[in-house]
Design goal:
This protein is of the alpha/beta class and about 350 residues long. The protein has 2 domains: about 5-55 and about 160-325, 3-Layer(aba) Sandwich (Rossmann fold), CATH 3.40.50.1100; about 60-155, Rossmann fold (3-Layer(aba) Sandwich), CATH 3.40.50.1100. It has 15 helices and 10 strands. Helix 4 links the parallel strand 3 and strand 4 (about 100-105). Bound molecules: pyridoxal-5'-phosphate (PLP). Pyridoxal-5'-phosphate binds next to helix 9 and helix 13.
């Protein structure tokens, strides 16, 4: 049976000895070879498919550690601001832990699958008339005022849990990859990967990608009204800004922007050509490689192996999928009509 990541890596995580393990057996996600992408970018490409975590995104890695620690110190409730996946994960792990969960999401800006998850798991779901950055500011204040644990990636235990994905990549490849491509929103995940790689003496080049309409790290200043179809990375003022930029620099990598059109094309292309259905934000990692290639600093060798982090599952956001996919073919209840529909 697959163990959760606390059972696999507890001695390398930030838990106290008496903390309970609140787990849904997250982690141990597959590293999938990507032959078609490899051809297009002329390097050996793999997907780290984080959509196969229990609630369908990498957020579960951080949540198992953050919620276990919160429960260990006696917290009765957890709260987060979320573009959707943190809400789904927070709600599930709160249910698992027997704690109350509250999630603050930007009104009308959350993918329908994520909303369904948060509600089904029994969290109190609050739709804020504001964006993610407003929601994060408010939950930070609330968690100062009330005995409620904040489980956004400003929580150090979230980063600790998420770094385990880097351990798995190195274990599965048997060595460090030459590069890692990753979508960047609040910048917690890239921070976590870099920490994880460093802890196993690996230093792949980090290529981070933001959506053009929500690219504060690329522009070098916060974006007041971030806009992109990739709702999971619609963030204008990343909480882990400095750490993420330090990681890009130390890894000799960079952060760049991709347009919504490039993101949606990569999203569809992946599903159609590699058989992997991720959510739009996740496809930013592949869109970025296709748009920008594998740039290296002067004198460095081009990476031979690239891992693309596919952060969340495509089923999270059926509305965007259906708006991008070909139409269904309607058909009469008749053999020859079906024949034409299938073979023409
Ligand atoms: C949270 C999330 C991201 C962004 O991760 P950060 O740690 O905020 O940079 C990217 N893709 C998906 C699917 C996410 O849920």
């Amino acid at each position: 049976m697959a163990l959760g990541l606390i059972d696999r890596y507890r001695d390398r995580l930030s838990l106290e000895p008496g903390d309970p393990v609140v787990t849904l057996n997250e982690g141990s996600t597959p590293l999938i070879e990507a032959p078609r992408l490899s051809e297009r970018i002329e390097a050996r490409a793999y997907f780290k498919f984080e959509g196969l975590n229990p609630t369908g995104s990498f957020k579960d890695r951080g949540m198992t550690v953050a919620v276990s620690r919160a429960k260990g110190r006696g917290a009765e409730a957890i709260i987060c601001a979320s573009t959707g996946n943190t809400a789904a994960s927070c709600a599930a792990y709160a249910a698992r832990a027997g704690m109350r969960g509250a999630v603050i999401v930007p009104e009308g800006k959350i993918a329908i699958g994520k909303l369904a998850q948060a509600l089904m798991h029994g969290a109190r779901v609050v739709a804020l008339q504001g964006n993610f950055d407003d929601a994060l500011r408010i939950v930070r204040e609330l968690s100062q005022k009330h005995p409620i644990e904040l489980v956004n990636s400003v929580n150090p235990h979230r980063i600790e849990g998420q770094k385990t994905a880097a351990f798995e990549v190195v274990e599965d490849l048997g060595a460090a990859p030459g590069a890692l491509a990753i979508p960047v929103g609040n910048a917690g995940n890239v921070t976590a990967y870099w920490r994880g790689f460093q802890e196993v003496d690996a230093a792949p080049i980090l290529y981070g990608f933001q959506a053009e309409g929500a690219a504060p790290l690329v522009r070098g200043e916060p974006v007041a009204n971030p806009e992109t179809v990739a709702s999971a990375i619609r963030i204008g003022n990343p909480a882990r800004w400095e750490e993420a930029m330090a990681a890009f620099t130390a890894s000799r990598g960079r952060v760049a922007a991709v347009s919504d059109e490039q993101i949606l094309n990569a999203y569809r292309w992946l599903a159609d050509n590699e058989g992997v259905f991720c959510e739009p934000a996740s496809a930013a990692s592949v869109a970025g490689l296709l748009a920008h290639g594998l740039p290296v600093v002067e004198g460095a060798a081009r990476p031979e192996t690239v891992v693309c982090v596919l952060t969340g599952h495509g089923l999270k956001d059926p509305d965007t999928a259906l708006s991008k996919a070909p139409a269904v073919i309607n058909c009469d209840n008749d053999l020859s009509a079906v024949e034409r529909a299938v073979f023409d």
